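seq:
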Amino acid sequence: MAMALSGSGAALADDNTVVTSQEVPITNPESGTAPTVNNTVATSKGGLFTDPEDGHFDMSRWLLEHRGFLPVPIIVTDPAVGYGGGIGLAFFSRPEGSAPTRTRPDGSIAMIAPNIYGIGAMKTEDGTKALGFGGVMHFDNDTWRYRGGVGLVDMNLDFYTNGVLGAAQKIGVNMKGVVSAQQVFRRIGDQDLFLIGSWIFMDIDPRLNLASDRALLTNLDFKQRSSALGLALEYDTRDNPFTPSSGYEASLDTYFYDKAFGSDVTFQSYRAHVFGYWPLAKSVVLGLRADGRMVNGDVPFYRLPYIDLRGIPSVRYQGQRVGMLESEVRWNVTPRWGLVAFTGVGRAWGERTTFDEASNEVSKGVGFRYEIARKLGLHVGVDYAWGPENKTFYIQVGSAWR
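struct:
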């Protein structure tokens, strides 16, 4: 898909009034300037969408001081569903009763991200449509977090039999239903470590687009409900939750689908990933990603892990086991504008394909970024990527890695 969105009140001043403020800098080598968070009132001078420091277009005041929204055009170019579009709206606000920053045990200052609420809708040329809403909230100076969303989907997807059911053949499936993901985070002490409790729920009615494909997908069960409880550990030292320039995000996730939790199927899902960011120079940042996913048990075909890389269609390469490596370099040409280049490799294997028999699938691409909200360190842009079979582009809001 083409939209991606990564995850104190301040007194308001008249747009033409200059108000003194105290700012806490958070280092951001990528932009050459530090995203800042106001402890009192944001310095305001000029227009609502003009940064008083450099005079460039900036949405920081609109989003943080005026509870504004960030419009996100959804341009769908994923070959899995065809071309299409839609619109998303993201609303930002400071967490009630929380400071804009927190002090880590080593004395460094960490930004507490704003609360974000979003809603979006899209439709594509093959009849796929979806409507969703969700949010990310922070409580008690970021001791607790909530992240969740609910979506209504009516999707036409092409699945492939390679790696699971024999020779590669494309099968068109319509999937209609409700999807929900809910997570509660609890910080462990003063550390950058979180214990996460999750509930994943999907009530999906999969139907073949062609009845003749029924013989190819012998494990197709209609009107399936999958429900899981999960536990995870997440370690997050990123300097910025939107467009990081240093630090790590590492997570180990486990999900257990069982009839005791309201599921029609019983299986287990696991994921381990690490995202790392290193400033190579004042305006150059290297990012590396390692991501592994696996499932065990009676897994519906549409819940199998797949290679998730820009330039490769969703669910194109599935298996009981999937591994991915990806790198990205960001070069800030000016304090506002930057260029990115990335490449990745993934491999999917499973019951009928061993790791050695599976092939590497490689993708690569380039893009640009604009820092649209300096006080948040939030960058937006466009990526153009190509894989083994397709070329496509993506609108990015924040980091492309989830």
